[in-house]
Amino acid sequence: MFLFVCVYAHDNQLNSIIIILIFCLLDYLLRDTKVIKLVPENLLKKRKKYQAIKATEAKLALLQKRKVQKGRPLRFKRLEDFLKHGKRQHRDERRIQRAKERPLTDLPPPKNSLAFIVRIREIKGVSPKVMKILHMFRLRKIFSGTFLRINKTSLRMLKTVEPYVAWGFPNLKSVRELILKRGQARVSKRKVALTDNAFIEEHMGKHGIICLEDLIHEIYSVGKNFKAASQFLLPFKLSVPRHAARDQVGLLKDIGAPGPRAEDINKVIRQLN
Description:
Elements: H1 2-8, H2 12-32, H3 41-70, H4 79-101, E1 114-119, H5 128-136, E2 144-149, H6 152-160, E3 165-168, H7 172-182, E4 184-187, E5 190-193, H8 197-204, H9 212-221, H10 226-232, E6 236-237, H11 242-246, H12 248-255, E7 259-262, H13 265-272
Helix pairs in contact: 1-2, 7-9
């Protein structure tokens, strides 16, 4: 463009000004150009080889991670564990078969229609029937507890899992302390502590439960919305003394043997809550 102006301009003074501007522009462009440093060829080859090695390692690490996530890694299991679990499973099946032949005990009085169950034993190698009932009670972890309505079906299920749980009839004080101290609900895969009545009203208002006291009353009285209220509560994760958690003998001395406890379940709740 500048050359075109120089050729067709008739004024010599204008041509001189344009030539000066062109030289100034060239000088500015040459001054700002960056100098590219030359790198030896052997160094470029080393860099390229190193980048290829790192890319391969990253790809292998990603494949290994996906392989591990697809299935659990194999664990070595001793023969003694197989024998121990087999004997326990066989013993459970024989005990369940004998319990079917025995007559069912009478139902407790209506005032004892609420039971609290806490799992106090490990369940490795137990019978599939026992495992299924414990999962129905949501007792997947040791020292976890839930509330249950007492009827013929629940009594039969409690007889099946009796060697692994302790259960009894809690009073109003125990129910209140459990819900106030350890009450939690799950919302959108997130655990939420029951400390806000607005939260309870939002999720349980359709059942007539608008505050924490309504929830406690519905659980203790085993009302018509007991199932919804108990499902709203997550299983209670109870705490255990350190010496009882480490020593099996100490555990039996502090908490006692599994099975029905009637009113003594309140003492167990005091120890574990």
